Amino acid sequence: MSTHHLFATRASRMKASEIRELLKLLDQPGIISFAGGIPDPALFPVEGFANAFQVALGVDQQAQSLQYSVSEGYVPLREWIAEHMRQIGVECDIDNVLITSGSQQALDYLGKLYLSPGDTALVGWPTYLGALAAFNAYEPRFDRISINGNRGAAEYRSGAGEGAVKFAYLSPDFANPTGETVDLRGREALLDLAEELDCAIIEDGAYQALRYEGEAIPPILSLELARKGSLESCRTIYCGSFSKTLSPGLRVGWVVAAKPIISQLVLMKQAADLHSATINQMAVYQVARASFDTHIPMLRNVYGVRRDAMLAALEEYMPKEVQWTKPEGGMFVWITLPSGMDGADLLSRALETVKVAFVPGQAFFPDETGANTIRLSFSNSDEDTIREGIRRLGEVLCR
Ligand SMILES: Cc1ncc(COP(=O)(O)O)c(C=O)c1O
After folding, report:
1. Is 190 helix (H, G, I), strand (E, B) or coil?
2. Which of 17, 103, 208 to mutate for ligand 1's pocket (most ligand atoms within 8 Å of CB)?
3. How many angstroms does the Cα of residue 115 sit away from the middle of ligand 1?
4. Distances in Å between the alpha carbon of 207 and those of 30, 76, 92, 139, 296?
5. Separation between Cα atoms, residue 347 and residue 177, nearest integer Å
6. Is the pTM of this model over 0.90?
7. Which of 52, 169, 361, 389 would you label with 113, given CA atoms 20 to 30 Å apart?
8. Distance, CA 202 to ligand 1 centroid (Å)?
9. Would you say the CB of residue 176 lies under 6 angstroms from ligand 1?
10. Using omega within 30 degrees of 0 as the cis cutoff, is the peptide bond preceding 126 cis?
11. pLDDT tens digits for 357-390?
């Protein structure tokens, strides 16, 4: 006898992720895939990790590396992260740092911490699908954030019905899926709005380190810190990740926030998985310490060239009705097709006729609008493949 009828209400809100389904396409021979927003495995610091795991399993460290550890995370890694955060403008100490199993876990915990059913979560339109999936389990309603502050607090409040606006979630640098960056004015305006609404800000810094041109813009948390003078008074919660820089498979991310928020998240981690894998944290620490500062410029060079190749190919091969973003970093270009054209239809035609894969944009919109959008990732193909893939895509679009 099935137990489906016993599932909690939240189960019915959980849908299979189109992205995960699409990642399966990467395995088909001959496909040029712009679908997965994943790092190029050829760029993983494999030797560094081989070394680090060997050290961690050596006689000096094995009792620690294979053992249970504290929920807050491996102290040397938290210290490294605190220093890294200071370098990007966020003055903090290790009590402000929690290690999570990828930043995805942080998004889940933050949904759990802030959202009661019916509460409002403000998100970009479109936004990172994994954030929508994480928050959705806590049964919120989603409303559209306006980065430049051209919708006032009153509007969000009146739109929110009974539920309070609990947080605004965004990825201000090279967002997934659009590749767009929020400028300094937009970040300040968002802070103003959060003050007016009395809500938290979840700043997702997953791609923060991957800038290929222009000056870094201070994290929202650092701007708030400059206003308030102490992290303990800040409403912004920063989520970081080693997934896009060192390795996504090790599942090591972090949260930086005021201590009372970190304490709550620690309780959640204790209840959920006790701690992130000790040996992975130790290995990430070793590799970050030894080579983060040289590895990142290398990634910026390689991915920057790929971004340029994609933008140049789009210029050359796209019909003139097609528009796209010009990301300064990250992994994505966001394409707006002529209205009336459907990204999912285009995907099936592109797969069938020219063997090109990408992600239809609709899934990134909470209300499933945006049918005429698609997301392309340039991170995982070399320049010639990118050029050829975009040429083929242009061919399908011009048919
Ligand atoms: C914007 C954004 N945030 C968070 C994540 C989750 O990354 P991880 O859990 O591997 O740190 C991703 C992964 O694609 C992402 O694109």
Report:
1. helix
2. 103
3. 20
4. 29, 23, 20, 27, 11
5. 16
6. yes
7. 361
8. 13
9. yes
10. yes
11. 999 999 899 998 999 999 999 999 999 999 999 9
